[in-house]
Amino acid sequence: MKHVLLSLGFMLILIQPNLAQKTQKPTQWQTATSGGYSYRYIPNDPLKARFYTLKNGLSVILSVNKKEPRIFSFMPTRAGSNTDPRTNTGLAHYLEHMLFKGTDKYGSLDWAKEKPLLDQIDALYERYNKTTDTVQRKAIYREIDQKSGEAAKFAIANEYDKMIANMGAQNSNAFTSYEVTCYLEDIPSNALDRYLTLQAERFRQPVLRIFHTELEAVYEEKNRSLDNDPWKVEEVLMAALFPTHNYGQQTTIGTVEHLKNPSLVEIRNYFNKYYVPNNMAIIMAGDLNPDEVIKKIDQKFSYWKPKEVQLYKPVAEAPLTSIQVREVFGPTPDNVRIGFRLPGVLDVKAATLATLADEIMSNSAAGLIDLNLNKQQKILGGGSTLEKLKDYSVWSLSGRPKKGQSLEEVKDLLIGQVEKLKKGEFDEKMLRAIVNNYKLNAIRELENNYSRANPLLDAFVNSKGDSWPDYTRRLDDMSKITKKEVVDFANQWFKNNYVVVYKRKGEDKSIQKVEKPAITPVATNTDKQSPFLKSVNDTEMAPVKPVWLDYKKDVKRGKAGISEVLYASNVENDIFRLGYRLKIGNYHSKLLGLATQYLAFLSTDQLSAEQVSTEFYNLACSYAIQPGNEYTTIRLTGLQENFVPAVKLLESLLRTCKPDEKALEDLKGRILKQRADAKLNKGAIMQGLMQYAEYGAKNPFNNQLTNDELAKVTATELVGFIHSLVTLPHQIIYYGPQPLASFEQQIVGLHQLPAAFATLPSKQDFKQLPQDANQVLFADYDMVQSEISWVRNTNTYDPAQAPVVEFFNNYFGGGMASVVFQTLRESKALAYSTYAYYNTPPKKGEQYTLIGYIGSQADKLPEAVAGMNELLNSLPDSPIALESAKKGMKKAYETERVLQDGVIYSFLDAEEKGLDYDERQKIYDALDALSYTDLKKFSEQYLANKPYTYCVVASEKRVNPTDLAKYGTVKKLTLEEIFGY
User: Fold this and answer.
1) CB 201 within 8 A of CB 475
2) Does residue 908 lie in a domain region?
3) What is the pLDDT of residues 610-638, one digit of tens each?
4) Residues 640, 709: one domain?
5) Do both 854 and 899 map to the same domain?
6) pLDDT at 70
7) Same domain, yes or no, for 191 and 234?
8) DSSP per position, 213-263
């Protein structure tokens, strides 16, 4: 499935001919009382969600999931970029960043002394906003910088992150979009009291401290967006689709002009206006007792007073009556995007019809674009997606051209598939298949807390939860839709009323970079703590006993012919996951990647390639082949009731696929275009540089067929290679409801094995290089920012080092509370994104590698490099951060559960390292004894004042390679050297 926002409706029978006639009665709200609190619920709701509204209007939505002792939480406010003042765009996003900075109770050493300085900074920003003279503005900003430095002496940076890490939380984050700003955490279930105490204080009286360094982080985020061509396409598309609505007229990050002129007064007014209980919610899914949780939330948040809230109420957009054409230029490959404006998500019937139309067009398997364009290789790649928003939804098509193909030709091919939809040129069986696949995905969504909470978040944002009855009925509603209704909908909405954006390779002369202001690094006082932090950290957490894997007991082993079977039972639902883990990878054969791509375009002895895809989709099953360096896994997943036909179909494809010369020639042409496009991708370039640094000129990244070698490969050769895969040594992995004994018996009949496995091809080994002297690997790329990665190979894998390695990573560079993030982003404002970690090799005999990264404005590169080097050479000592990291790790391990077939893959990972035990237990048991002395010794032995290879991707217009010579010998690599073709 390609969509995240799916219905969790009725899941009774997945495959049946008369699905549309076997429907449930409409589901409506019911009311119940428990533990002294009333709530609404929907009978037969798979999430069993309870919807509470407290006296002050705060919405609380709870869903119980007892699979692991953790809770995922969203805290949304129904205010995003739509509600930004037109004179202060980006304001909601600013505020999101600042709500990690604390209140008058935490984040401050002395609030009485800090507040007057912050008031002065407020006034200075207001003067700055009203001043147009450049010289005067710089003078005022120098005052802001000076006063900010004074105020920072009384601030404690990121106490929020320390508290959240100390309780064992994971993935602490927030996001802002059109209609919501949302704060999210994944916490241990025994940390609920700490979490609620912290959140209640967080939203009581936030203080906008350390503002100008955080503002610099937002500048960096804006500059990153200027280097992001898809982001630019999105902005241009939305602006054309919505000439009056804020969807198109205001971006989340804001305009450059508004970024340069922030107003703390306006930000505070925004908070007071929209961050009120009747406009917010607490949404939790996980191991919780609803009666206890709602009582605690009520107690913690009862201080919050409601206010009348006026949300954004736009004037209706005039209909689009013609095709709007736009162009975007940038360094990435050409592509086209087409957008249609549709009714919003609250129009339930329209939303359902739009979903079906979108899936008929592209479902990653058997849609019109999938079969008629992608499968037939008429374009490099294409698809469709539906963005469901409150006021309007946006349906978009996208495509990439083959070599020699114009964007206009790709656009015409995509619109041609829309015309087929409008004419009803699709099999009506597709409607039932779509519903079945959505039902399968709905079952999967029940398996983890995040996927449970996500649709509840959307329901709150769109309607404060009132749309949940429609949401839970959606699959039932989908099953009733007829082909005629879909065709009528397509003809009503998909006319010559779309926006087409041509993304062309070329210089973007419209870029207006956000200039770096003069900022003096501020004190972060990371070794200090507020009384509030201490009280939160001292709040008792009920003990949770960690659960470790015992591979001898937890991984069931069996036999199917000459193959070993690794088995895990699914006692939750009827989903199966089957894997053939082949002992062949890219190190054994350069044909592997090509062969696995080729397979998607091949017919069997009975079915065409298009029919194969359609059959898999009709079975609500899917397969994937994942080549690795030393192993390749062929995976098949779906419902157990369709296990036999799905395996038979996969086996037929692997064993009877037929050579197709035209498909191969088309594929070769597409690969050559993909290779050319990869050279325009800065992420791929950086990946290649880092592999070059780690292994040298011949490395796993460029270990692939040259263009000449590719040209010589024949269809017969490739098909022979595919047929041979199942004859090579492999294990069979099964997770599902079928008992081991019956699975062993069944799979032998379905998956025919030879009397003896064939001999594996010889394997090419890649040796990691020692970094004996500093070196700079440079690649020129047209971008506003610069990106730098540090690479250093160290010692050979030693399992005894696992505790100190994991402790070092958590303390040094692994999150927002880490030394790297706190210093380079929070104190010095050098980057939006930065991290560092000591990478453990995947198998014994290989070496650890230190990887560091910072993305900064090009003119800050010298400061960025110096900042990271200082941390690598002299590990800072922060006892409070150290203790927080240690306690957080322990609590995370205590509540972490390896579930489902994760047990099998954990065992296989351990086996590659030569271990027969769960390494997490060794780390956990050793943590209490570890100290800063251990980390310092580790750092000095392997990292401090050692040679590194610096990988730099930047524009020569902004970073001169000769200026990089002070870091080491500079080697400017060509794209051919990086990519190997």
Assistant:
1) no
2) yes
3) 999 999 999 999 999 999 999 999 999 99
4) yes
5) yes
6) 97
7) yes
8) HHHHHHHHHHHHHHT-HHHHHHHHHHHHH-SSSHHHH--SS--HHHHTS--
Contacts of 134 (CB under 8 A, 6+ apart): none
Do 647 and 664 lie in a common domain? yes
**One domain, residues 689 and 799:** no
- Does an H or E element contain 904, and which? helix 902-912
What band does 21 get if pLDDT is binned at 50, 70 and 90? very low
pLDDT, tens only, 338-352: 999 999 999 999 999
Cα(9)–Cα(917) distance, rounded to whole angstroms? 41
Q: Extract the runs of DSSP E, i.e. beta strands, from 608-755.
A: 622-627, 632-639, 730-736
Is 166 in the same domain as 90? yes
Q: Which residues contact 657 (CB under 8 A, 6 or more apart)?
A: 599, 602, 603, 604, 719, 722, 723
Joined tokens for residue 8: 């969790």
Residue 482, in any domain of the structure: yes
Q: Which residue has the tokens 């995007």?
A: 337
What is the spatial distance between Cα 177 and Cα 174, in angstroms, rounded to a whole number? Answer: 10
Tell me which residue of 400, 147, 440, 453 sits closest to 288, measured CA to CA: 453
Number of domains in the chain: 4
Q: Are 340 and 501 in contact (CB under 8 A)?
A: no
Distance CA(614)–CA(380), nearest Å, equals 20
Residues 527 and 561 both lie in one domain: no
Which two tokens mark 192? 């609920």
Pair of tokens at residue 65: 């999931």
Structural domain includes residue 169? yes
Cβ–Cβ under 8 Å, residues 138 and 42:
no
Structural domain includes residue 136: yes
Structural tokens at position 618: 């009709």
When the pLDDT of each residue in the chain is averaged and rounded to a whole number, the result is: 92
Token duo for residue 757:
């496995």
Domain span at 682: 551-750
Q: Give the C-alpha separation, 877 to 933, whole Å.
A: 9
Residue tagged 């898809």 (tokens)? 230
Asked if residue 854 lies in contact with residue 833, where contact means CB atoms within 8 angstroms, the answer is yes
Quickly tell me which residue has 């920012």 as its tokens: 785
Among residues 731, 751, 752, 744, the alpha carbon closest in space to that of 581 is found at 731
Contact 192, 539 (CB under 8 A): no
Does residue 594 share a domain with residue 476?
no
Distance (Å, whole) CA 941 – CA 875: 12
Contact 261, 129 (CB under 8 A): yes
Q: Which tokens belong to 300?
A: 């913690």
User: Computed over its alpha carbons, how large is the radius of gyration of the chain?
Assistant: 29
Model-level pTM? 0.91
- Alpha-carbon separation of residue 498 from 361, 363, 505, 689 (angstroms): 16, 21, 23, 41
State how far the Cα of 700 lies from the Cα of 517, in Å rounded to an integer: 41
Give the number of C-alpha atoms closer than 13 A to the C-alpha of residue 898, restricted to the C-beta side. 21
CA distance 153 to 809: 28
- State the CATH number of the domain containing residue 142: 3.30.830.10
The CA distance from 407 to 413, in Å, is 10
